[in-house]
Amino acid sequence: MKITRSLVVALVLAPALAPALAIGAQKPSDPKPSEQKPAEKPAEKKGLTGQISEEEFKKLHELKTDAAPPGKGTMIEIGKEKAYLSIPEGAKAPMPAVIVIHEWWGLNDNVMHWADRIAAEGYAAIAVDLYGGVVAKNPDEAMGAMRKVDDKKATEIMLAALKFAKDDPRIQATKRASIGWCFGGGMSLQLALAAPDLDAAVMYYGHPVEDPKALETLKAPLLGIFGTKDKSIPPEVVKKFDDMLTDAKKAHHFHSFDADHAFANPSNPHYDEKNAGAAWEIARAFLAEHLKGAKAEAKEAKSPK
Predict the structure, then answer these.
(1) 30-63 confidence digits (pLDDT tens)
(2) Which of 1, 153, 234, 283 has a CA positioned 20 to 30 A from the CA of residue 301?
(3) What span, in angstroms and rounded, lies between the C-alpha atoms of 107 and 294?
(4) Would residue 198 count as lying in a domain?
């Protein structure tokens, strides 16, 4: 076969031209690795942190390592979910009951201690677990657990606890209320919206609803306790919610204290013993009025320890 000069040149240059041709064949729109956009962060769950970002919200919470007093109650199961039950010593059914809803740390020893404190007032206290057994040890874990909460499932768990309080032979409650702090405060409100047979609801610095139509199902009297220094739920947000409830003609009482977010939590650096004690006396009287049909006896304001 006769090999021409042009063919020889082509054979010699082909290996050198191949990379260039390959580069030229790339799509102009293909970004270089260094130019690729970083992965977007998952969207924040609306309403979890109120008027501030998640990072700012985490700064409002720190967990002290001080141990809570030993629990007096027992762990139980309601359906497939765990809960903590504390019954007044020596009490027999029937008795009023309070559904206790943890703050963003989860069902930890401090919340169980709160349940014991409520039980000491003559109520069966049922502390539910809306985190599926997760107990956070730092703000990042707490934020992650709170973001994963399925609102529908959480409501089902609280409604199941409400039914348990009525049906369990140890309790047989004819009057039932809910109480919660921070994340639990907002969930206490959600339970009240979902349970027209709830007799009272207490929300400590929980995020309010923003849609007036959501209040149509609210039947229980609502007690709201807030801090004027709370950046996540500032006074103007509290006032707007207060006005919404007034316009909707819903029974409610709001009390604001010169304090920060989580001021009633002894395990938080923002804990304010004086205001926490005063707030508890208000909550205590509110529960007594609606669950026992009587005003609570006047007591010196004391905080949970």
Answers:
(1) 444 344 444 444 444 545 555 545 555 444 455 5
(2) 234
(3) 30
(4) yes
Q: pTM to 2 decimals? A: 0.78
Q: CA 110 to CA 105: how far, in whole Å? A: 10
Q: What is the dihedral of CA 267, 268, 270, 271, to 10 degrees?
A: -20
Domain that holds residue 147: 54-292
Regions of the chain where pLDDT drops below 70 = 1-67, 294-305
- The residue among 149, 98, 139, 136 whose CA lies nearest residue 291 is 98
The encoded tokens of residue 61 equal 């919470």
Segment holding 204, helix H or strand E: strand 200-204
Q: Where are the alpha helices (DSSP H) in 120-252?
A: 139-147, 151-167, 183-194, 235-247
Contact assessment for residue 203 and residue 225, using Cβ atoms and an 8 Å cutoff: yes
Task: Tell me the pLDDT tens digit for each residue of 114-135.
Answer: 999 999 999 999 999 999 999 9
Number of domains in the chain: 1
